[in-house]
Design brief:
0% strand
Length: 109
């Protein structure tokens, strides 16, 4: 593959993800048989083990198993930042001037 050294790992990672997705869910690309997707994915994992390790991929992921999700660490819930609105802070009645006047948005003279 000809690519700049900065971009090359990203392209390889994208190819790994594509072949793994096709191997796991064949409906993603019906023109490619599942066996070929598995073969291409495993070849990339063997050729670039450091990239696969960084992504958390292994050769075994190309075969379906309920045990694959047990290895993944729990993803922490994102903390609410000060820039986000707290729950319930957006009150439509307070933000809509038509509701404040009680006129229902009609102009009266």
């Amino acid at each position: 593959m000809r690519a700049r050294p900065e971009i090359r790992p990203h392209l390889i990672a994208h190819r790994m993800k594509r072949w793994l997705d096709i191997a796991r869910w064949p409906i993603m690309d019906v023109k490619v048989p599942t066996w070929r997707a598995r073969r291409n994915y495993r070849a990339l994992v063997r050729k670039y083990p450091e990239i696969a390790e960084r992504l958390g991929y292994s050769e075994a992921l190309s075969f379906p198993s309920p045990l694959h999700d047990l290895r993944r660490p729990a993803v922490p819930h994102p903390q609410v930042s000060s820039q986000e609105f707290p729950v319930g802070s957006l009150d439509i009645d307070a933000a809509d001037p038509a509701h404040e006047s009680g006129g229902g948005g009609c102009v009266t003279e």
